[in-house]
Specification:
5-stranded parallel sheet, 12 helices, 3 domains, 450 residues, D-Amino Acid Oxidase, Chain A, domain 2
Length: 450
Amino acid sequence: MTQSQLGRHAVVIGAGIGGLSAACALADHFEQVSVLERDDLAPTAGPRAGTPQGRHVHALLAGGLQALRELFPGIEDDLRQAGAVPLRGALDVRVERPGFDPFPVRDLGVLTYSMSRPIIEFTLRQRVQRLPNVSLRPSCRVLDLVAGADGASVTGVRCEEGGAATRRLSADLVVDASGRGTPTLGWFEAMGRPAPPETHIGVDIGYASAVFEMPAGPDADWKGVMTFPKAPQSSRGALMLPLEGRCWMVSLGGRGGDKPPGDEAGFLEYARGLRTRTIHDAIDGARRVGDIARFAFPSSMRRHFEQLPALPRGLLPLGDVICRFNPVYGQGMSVAAQEGALLRRLLAEAVHAPDPLQRVGADFIEGVQALLETPWAMAAIPDFIFPETTGPRPPDLERNLRFGSALLHLAAKRPEVHKLMVEVQHLLKPRSVYRNPVLMARVMVEMAKL
Ligand SMILES: Cc1cc2nc3c(=O)[nH]c(=O)nc-3n(C[C@H](O)[C@H](O)[C@H](O)COP(=O)(O)OP(=O)(O)OC[C@H]3O[C@@H](n4cnc5c(N)ncnc54)[C@H](O)[C@@H]3O)c2cc1C
């Protein structure tokens, strides 16, 4: 092993956004990294069973792109070559909010790309496959984690590969990026230890999504549209973003009894019932490509690994295993990528620590709490506008909602506040920037007018 290496073998469970980001982070510090993915991975981009959410709009936030850039230098060129469409935040997407149809259109210098989720994943997969010490093993399902003799550690996984008999793979470190976290939860159960406590926020959201060819003719003055509902009277919203190959993907979403249907006429009718007609008028008459996909999302979920006395040595949860966000806010992939970038920095720092893996485990869980603070609050607070939302209500909810509303009004008037708000929404800056006293004073003035 070289000096920068922390072990011989690391295993990553899952080749989603989190797993691929983690594999890249681990490659510099382990002789061999194996990414085990239950799905058969086709040599082209396409939907697959293990990530059914991939058939719905997946916005990549600028903070997620920044993390991917850190992990995979030059990733923007790869995405562009794969057909991703550049999007300048607040300029290229028409944002329609009650009272602001549209919200002021400005170039705030925030750039990201729009493409299908399979294209993002395929592009990352190609980069990971080029790393000489990383092997991607499709059709390999992890059954469970192997516990160390001390009962406090993980020393590998048991898996089934390509229909062959079950086998064990030893590992110095296992990263569980399986989305649901079944292997990690199974370890706690098998060891008779309490699993990490969970917070659930019940949102009961339904999605329906379809892809449409962009009609020929002059382009609109926007590349995408985001239509917010007038909450809490209605929860019906939509996001339409451009994809590779001159297509739009439209995701319609609603809560409780107002979920979008999966038939063509119903889809269009639901779009017609949005607060504005922009998306309906864009897709009415446009050729649909493929089926309408539906998805039910009952609740956001956060697993509090930070509340455990210690993480099992040799195990790191990552991505949706730690926190599954309400998809309406488009944060999950970006946070998974940010966690991958955090892991990369921590592995480099731990090289000279007495017990590097123990240190990385503890520092990672602590660092993730800071990463989650902004996206979790940005989703959890507005979700509680709807009285049907279940779960622990954030303290000071009413004040927080009024603050958000006043900030929005101020952002509409002042480009520098708009920029700050978009940077926070894109996870480029933490929410704590709103505590700036000058900004607070201005927001208070707005609040008094509401
Ligand atoms: C409807 C919907 C829309 C969304 N929209 C957005 C959006 O606009 N922007 C955004 O950033 N995020 C969005 N998300 C969230 C995003 O999809 C996830 O947060 C993100 O994919 C998490 O990455 P992950 O790597 O943790 O998990 P995943 O990407 O789900 O990957 C998990 C992988 O593990 C594999 N796996 C599972 N179990 C095993 C096993 N036992 N053995 C081997 N492999 C296994 C799976 O096949 C899969 O490949 C959306 C989610 C939903 C549901």
